[in-house]
Protein backbone atom coordinates (compact mmCIF):
# COMPACT_ATOMS: atom_id res chain seq x y z
CA UNK A 1 0.00 0.00 0.00
CA UNK A 2 1.20 3.49 -0.84
CA UNK A 3 0.11 6.90 0.39
CA UNK A 4 -1.85 7.36 -2.86
CA UNK A 5 -5.13 5.44 -2.97
CA UNK A 6 -5.51 6.07 -6.71
CA UNK A 7 -2.10 4.60 -7.47
CA UNK A 8 -3.00 1.59 -5.34
CA UNK A 9 -6.26 1.16 -7.28
CA UNK A 10 -4.41 1.35 -10.60
CA UNK A 11 -1.78 -1.19 -9.53
CA UNK A 12 -4.44 -3.51 -8.15
CA UNK A 13 -6.30 -3.51 -11.47
CA UNK A 14 -3.07 -4.00 -13.43
CA UNK A 15 -2.21 -7.04 -11.27
CA UNK A 16 -5.38 -8.62 -12.65
CA UNK A 17 -4.09 -8.02 -16.18
CA UNK A 18 -6.34 -5.03 -16.82
CA UNK A 19 -5.03 -2.08 -18.82
CA UNK A 20 -5.37 1.21 -16.93
CA UNK A 21 -5.02 4.91 -17.66
CA UNK A 22 -5.76 8.10 -15.68
CA UNK A 23 -8.96 10.12 -15.63
CA UNK A 24 -9.23 13.71 -14.48
CA UNK A 25 -9.77 14.15 -10.71
CA UNK A 26 -13.39 13.65 -9.57
CA UNK A 27 -14.29 12.90 -13.20
CA UNK A 28 -14.86 10.19 -15.81
CA UNK A 29 -13.02 12.17 -18.52
CA UNK A 30 -9.61 10.86 -19.72
CA UNK A 31 -6.64 12.84 -18.41
CA UNK A 32 -4.45 11.82 -21.36
CA UNK A 33 -4.78 11.82 -25.14
CA UNK A 34 -4.79 8.59 -27.14
CA UNK A 35 -5.82 6.53 -24.12
CA UNK A 36 -6.72 3.42 -26.20
CA UNK A 37 -3.05 3.04 -27.08
CA UNK A 38 -1.50 4.31 -23.84
CA UNK A 39 -3.48 2.20 -21.36
CA UNK A 40 -1.01 -0.13 -19.68
CA UNK A 41 -0.30 -2.85 -17.14
CA UNK A 42 3.34 -1.79 -16.75
CA UNK A 43 4.10 -0.75 -13.16
CA UNK A 44 6.70 1.87 -14.12
CA UNK A 45 4.35 3.61 -16.53
CA UNK A 46 1.53 3.41 -14.01
CA UNK A 47 3.67 5.10 -11.36
CA UNK A 48 4.46 7.81 -13.92
CA UNK A 49 0.71 8.30 -14.48
CA UNK A 50 0.06 8.56 -10.72
CA UNK A 51 2.93 10.36 -8.96
CA UNK A 52 2.85 10.75 -5.19
CA UNK A 53 0.20 13.47 -4.80
CA UNK A 54 -1.77 12.80 -8.02
CA UNK A 55 -5.53 12.51 -7.48
CA UNK A 56 -6.45 11.27 -10.95
CA UNK A 57 -9.16 8.65 -11.08
CA UNK A 58 -8.49 5.25 -12.64
CA UNK A 59 -10.00 3.87 -15.84
CA UNK A 60 -9.83 0.34 -17.23
CA UNK A 61 -9.70 -0.02 -21.03
CA UNK A 62 -12.10 -2.94 -21.46
CA UNK A 63 -11.07 -4.16 -24.93
CA UNK A 64 -7.32 -4.69 -24.29
CA UNK A 65 -8.19 -6.16 -20.89
CA UNK A 66 -10.32 -8.88 -22.48
CA UNK A 67 -13.38 -7.62 -20.60
CA UNK A 68 -16.97 -6.82 -21.36
CA UNK A 69 -18.57 -4.88 -18.51
CA UNK A 70 -22.33 -4.71 -17.99
CA UNK A 71 -23.31 -1.27 -16.67
CA UNK A 72 -26.51 -1.37 -14.60
CA UNK A 73 -28.12 2.04 -14.09
CA UNK A 74 -30.32 2.92 -11.10
CA UNK A 75 -31.01 6.63 -11.61
CA UNK A 76 -33.43 8.61 -13.79
CA UNK A 77 -36.17 6.14 -12.85
CA UNK A 78 -34.27 3.13 -14.25
CA UNK A 79 -33.58 -0.15 -12.47
CA UNK A 80 -30.94 -1.96 -14.49
CA UNK A 81 -30.08 -4.52 -11.76
CA UNK A 82 -33.71 -5.62 -11.47
CA UNK A 83 -34.08 -5.85 -15.26
CA UNK A 84 -30.97 -8.03 -15.61
CA UNK A 85 -32.02 -10.21 -12.67
CA UNK A 86 -35.39 -10.83 -14.33
CA UNK A 87 -33.68 -11.77 -17.59
CA UNK A 88 -31.31 -14.12 -15.76
CA UNK A 89 -34.21 -15.72 -13.88
CA UNK A 90 -36.13 -16.21 -17.11
CA UNK A 91 -33.05 -17.89 -18.60
CA UNK A 92 -32.60 -20.06 -15.51
CA UNK A 93 -29.02 -18.89 -14.97
CA UNK A 94 -29.07 -16.41 -12.09
CA UNK A 95 -25.70 -17.74 -10.88
CA UNK A 96 -24.04 -16.17 -13.93
CA UNK A 97 -24.57 -12.76 -12.29
CA UNK A 98 -22.09 -13.76 -9.57
CA UNK A 99 -18.93 -12.19 -10.94
CA UNK A 100 -16.49 -9.40 -10.07
CA UNK A 101 -18.79 -6.47 -9.25
CA UNK A 102 -18.21 -2.77 -8.58
CA UNK A 103 -20.73 -0.50 -6.91
CA UNK A 104 -20.97 2.80 -8.78
CA UNK A 105 -22.66 6.03 -7.66
CA UNK A 106 -25.63 5.14 -9.89
CA UNK A 107 -25.68 1.35 -10.00
CA UNK A 108 -23.40 -1.62 -10.58
CA UNK A 109 -20.67 -2.76 -12.99
CA UNK A 110 -20.53 -6.52 -13.65
CA UNK A 111 -17.17 -7.58 -15.11
CA UNK A 112 -17.01 -10.52 -17.54
CA UNK A 113 -14.20 -12.10 -19.56
CA UNK A 114 -14.76 -12.27 -23.29
CA UNK A 115 -14.69 -15.89 -24.50
CA UNK A 116 -12.01 -16.95 -26.93
CA UNK A 117 -10.60 -13.48 -27.50
CA UNK A 118 -13.83 -12.24 -29.08
CA UNK A 119 -14.56 -8.51 -29.19
CA UNK A 120 -17.92 -6.83 -28.85
CA UNK A 121 -18.46 -3.07 -29.22
CA UNK A 122 -20.06 -0.85 -26.58
CA UNK A 123 -23.84 -0.97 -26.36
CA UNK A 124 -26.54 1.34 -25.00
CA UNK A 125 -29.85 -0.10 -23.76
CA UNK A 126 -29.48 -3.05 -26.17
CA UNK A 127 -30.27 -5.62 -23.48
CA UNK A 128 -32.91 -3.51 -21.71
CA UNK A 129 -33.48 0.08 -20.55
CA UNK A 130 -30.93 0.88 -17.84
CA UNK A 131 -28.43 -1.71 -19.09
CA UNK A 132 -25.44 -0.55 -21.14
CA UNK A 133 -22.16 -2.33 -21.72
CA UNK A 134 -18.52 -1.46 -22.35
CA UNK A 135 -16.29 -3.57 -24.58
CA UNK A 136 -14.01 -2.97 -27.54
CA UNK A 137 -13.28 0.76 -27.78
CA UNK A 138 -14.65 1.54 -24.32
CA UNK A 139 -13.59 1.94 -20.71
CA UNK A 140 -15.02 1.88 -17.21
CA UNK A 141 -14.13 3.78 -14.04
CA UNK A 142 -12.25 1.41 -11.74
CA UNK A 143 -12.90 0.58 -8.11
CA UNK A 144 -11.08 3.01 -5.82
CA UNK A 145 -12.04 6.06 -7.89
CA UNK A 146 -14.17 8.97 -6.71
CA UNK A 147 -16.34 11.31 -8.80
CA UNK A 148 -18.55 14.22 -7.82
CA UNK A 149 -21.42 11.71 -7.73
CA UNK A 150 -19.73 9.33 -5.30
CA UNK A 151 -17.30 6.41 -4.92
CA UNK A 152 -16.58 3.30 -6.98
CA UNK A 153 -16.22 0.31 -4.62
CA UNK A 154 -15.45 -3.35 -5.31
CA UNK A 155 -18.24 -5.47 -3.84
CA UNK A 156 -16.61 -8.85 -4.51
CA UNK A 157 -13.04 -10.05 -4.88
CA UNK A 158 -13.90 -12.99 -7.15
CA UNK A 159 -12.41 -13.35 -10.61
CA UNK A 160 -14.63 -12.24 -13.49
CA UNK A 161 -16.44 -15.19 -15.00
CA UNK A 162 -16.69 -15.73 -18.74
CA UNK A 163 -19.46 -13.75 -20.44
CA UNK A 164 -22.47 -16.10 -20.29
CA UNK A 165 -23.87 -17.31 -23.64
CA UNK A 166 -27.30 -15.83 -22.88
CA UNK A 167 -25.80 -12.34 -22.43
CA UNK A 168 -23.51 -12.80 -25.45
CA UNK A 169 -26.55 -13.66 -27.55
CA UNK A 170 -28.38 -10.52 -26.41
CA UNK A 171 -25.35 -8.36 -27.22
CA UNK A 172 -24.90 -9.85 -30.70
CA UNK A 173 -26.14 -7.45 -33.38
CA UNK A 174 -29.43 -8.35 -35.07
CA UNK A 175 -29.19 -9.58 -38.67
CA UNK A 176 -29.21 -6.83 -41.27
CA UNK A 177 -32.50 -6.66 -43.19
CA UNK A 178 -32.52 -8.07 -46.67
CA UNK A 179 -32.24 -5.54 -49.52
CA UNK A 180 -35.72 -4.49 -50.57
CA UNK A 181 -36.92 -5.65 -53.98
CA UNK A 182 -39.12 -3.58 -56.27
CA UNK A 183 -42.83 -4.46 -56.11
CA UNK A 184 -43.67 -7.17 -58.63
CA UNK A 185 -40.03 -7.91 -59.39
CA UNK A 186 -39.08 -11.58 -59.93
CA UNK A 187 -36.96 -13.29 -57.26
CA UNK A 188 -33.38 -12.04 -57.39
CA UNK A 189 -30.60 -14.36 -58.44
CA UNK A 190 -28.48 -15.27 -55.38
CA UNK A 191 -25.43 -13.60 -56.92
CA UNK A 192 -27.28 -10.30 -57.34
CA UNK A 193 -28.76 -10.63 -53.85
CA UNK A 194 -25.31 -11.24 -52.41
CA UNK A 195 -23.83 -8.28 -54.27
CA UNK A 196 -26.57 -6.06 -52.81
CA UNK A 197 -25.71 -7.21 -49.28
CA UNK A 198 -21.99 -6.67 -49.82
CA UNK A 199 -22.61 -3.19 -51.23
CA UNK A 200 -24.87 -2.22 -48.34
CA UNK A 201 -22.53 -3.46 -45.61
CA UNK A 202 -19.32 -2.02 -47.07
CA UNK A 203 -21.11 1.27 -47.68
CA UNK A 204 -22.00 1.50 -43.99
CA UNK A 205 -18.36 0.86 -43.04
CA UNK A 206 -16.98 3.48 -45.42
CA UNK A 207 -19.52 6.10 -44.32
CA UNK A 208 -19.02 5.52 -40.58
CA UNK A 209 -17.85 8.54 -38.57
CA UNK A 210 -15.36 8.53 -35.66
CA UNK A 211 -16.98 6.95 -32.64
CA UNK A 212 -19.06 4.56 -34.77
CA UNK A 213 -16.42 2.94 -36.99
CA UNK A 214 -15.70 -0.10 -34.81
CA UNK A 215 -19.39 -0.79 -34.35
CA UNK A 216 -20.15 -0.40 -38.07
CA UNK A 217 -17.29 -2.70 -39.03
CA UNK A 218 -18.20 -5.28 -36.39
CA UNK A 219 -21.85 -5.35 -37.49
CA UNK A 220 -20.84 -5.71 -41.15
CA UNK A 221 -18.41 -8.52 -40.30
CA UNK A 222 -21.10 -10.22 -38.24
CA UNK A 223 -23.56 -10.06 -41.16
CA UNK A 224 -21.04 -11.37 -43.69
CA UNK A 225 -19.73 -13.94 -41.22
CA UNK A 226 -23.21 -15.47 -41.08
CA UNK A 227 -23.18 -15.83 -44.87
CA UNK A 228 -19.70 -17.35 -44.81
CA UNK A 229 -20.86 -19.92 -42.23
CA UNK A 230 -23.93 -20.67 -44.35
CA UNK A 231 -21.81 -21.36 -47.42
CA UNK A 232 -23.12 -18.38 -49.40
CA UNK A 233 -19.92 -16.32 -49.32
CA UNK A 234 -16.19 -17.01 -49.48
CA UNK A 235 -14.46 -15.88 -46.28
CA UNK A 236 -11.36 -14.57 -48.05
CA UNK A 237 -13.48 -12.42 -50.35
CA UNK A 238 -15.61 -11.17 -47.45
CA UNK A 239 -12.49 -10.22 -45.50
CA UNK A 240 -11.00 -8.41 -48.50
CA UNK A 241 -14.05 -6.24 -49.18
CA UNK A 242 -14.48 -5.32 -45.51
CA UNK A 243 -10.80 -4.48 -45.05
CA UNK A 244 -10.85 -2.33 -48.19
CA UNK A 245 -13.95 -0.48 -47.01
CA UNK A 246 -12.44 0.18 -43.58
CA UNK A 247 -9.01 1.15 -44.95
CA UNK A 248 -10.23 4.68 -45.74
CA UNK A 249 -10.27 5.35 -41.97
CA UNK A 250 -6.68 4.24 -41.24
CA UNK A 251 -4.67 7.06 -39.69
CA UNK A 252 -7.71 9.12 -38.75
CA UNK A 253 -8.44 9.46 -35.01
CA UNK A 254 -6.01 6.60 -34.15
CA UNK A 255 -7.79 4.05 -36.37
CA UNK A 256 -5.31 1.30 -37.32
CA UNK A 257 -5.02 -1.70 -39.64
CA UNK A 258 -4.56 -3.92 -36.59
CA UNK A 259 -7.89 -2.72 -35.20
CA UNK A 260 -9.54 -3.56 -38.52
CA UNK A 261 -8.19 -7.12 -38.42
CA UNK A 262 -9.29 -7.71 -34.85
CA UNK A 263 -12.78 -6.34 -35.43
CA UNK A 264 -13.37 -8.32 -38.63
CA UNK A 265 -12.14 -11.53 -36.98
CA UNK A 266 -14.43 -10.99 -34.00
CA UNK A 267 -17.45 -10.26 -36.19
CA UNK A 268 -16.81 -13.33 -38.34
CA UNK A 269 -16.42 -15.56 -35.27
CA UNK A 270 -19.67 -14.46 -33.66
CA UNK A 271 -21.52 -14.41 -37.00
CA UNK A 272 -20.49 -18.03 -37.58
CA UNK A 273 -22.71 -19.00 -34.65
CA UNK A 274 -25.76 -17.98 -36.69
CA UNK A 275 -25.22 -19.39 -40.20
CA UNK A 276 -27.35 -17.86 -42.93
CA UNK A 277 -27.97 -19.30 -46.39
CA UNK A 278 -29.48 -17.48 -49.36
CA UNK A 279 -32.65 -18.62 -51.11
CA UNK A 280 -32.14 -20.51 -54.33
CA UNK A 281 -33.04 -18.70 -57.53
CA UNK A 282 -36.22 -19.72 -59.34
CA UNK A 283 -36.47 -20.27 -63.07
CA UNK A 284 -39.47 -19.75 -65.36
CA UNK A 285 -40.68 -22.82 -67.27
What descriptors fit this protein?
disordered C terminus, 17% strand, 285 residues, single chain
How can the largest sheet be summarized? 7 strands, mixed
Oligomer type: single chain
* Low-pLDDT residue spans: 281-285
Q: Name the helicity range.
A: 25-40%
Please provide the ordered H/E string of secondary-structure elements.
Answer: HEHHEEHEEEEEEEEEHHHHH
Beta-strand fraction estimate: 15-25%
Helix/strand/pairing class, anyone?
alpha+beta
Count of helical segments? 9
Shape verdict: globular
What is the C-alpha radius of gyration, as a whole number of Å?
Answer: 21 Å
Mean pLDDT: 87
Please provide the count of β strands. Answer: 12
Q: State the separation between the terminal residues, measured CA to CA.
A: 82 Å
Describe the 3D structure.
The protein has helices at residues 5-15, 35-38, 43-49, 80-91, 165-171, 190-207, 213-229, 235-246, 257-271, and strands spanning 19-23, 57-61, 67-73, 101-104, 107-113, 123-128, 131-134, 139-141, 146-147, 150-151, 153-154, 161-162. It has 285 residues and is α+β, with helices and mostly antiparallel strands. Strands 3, 4, 5, 6, 7, 11 and 12 form a seven-stranded mixed β-sheet that branches. Strands 1-2-8 form a three-stranded antiparallel β-sheet. A two-stranded antiparallel sheet has the order 9-10. Strand 6 (123-128) and strand 7 (131-134) form a beta hairpin. The radius of gyration is 21 Å and the shape is globular. The termini are far apart.
Amino acid sequence: MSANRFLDAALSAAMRGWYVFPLQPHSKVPAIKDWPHRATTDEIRIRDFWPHHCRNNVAIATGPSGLHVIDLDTHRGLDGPAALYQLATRSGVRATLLTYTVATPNGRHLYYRMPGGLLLPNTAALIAPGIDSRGHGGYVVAAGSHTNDGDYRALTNRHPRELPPWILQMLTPPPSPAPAAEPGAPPAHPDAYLRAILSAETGKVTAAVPGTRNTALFRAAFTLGRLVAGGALDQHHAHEVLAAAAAVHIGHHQFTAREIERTITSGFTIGARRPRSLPAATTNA
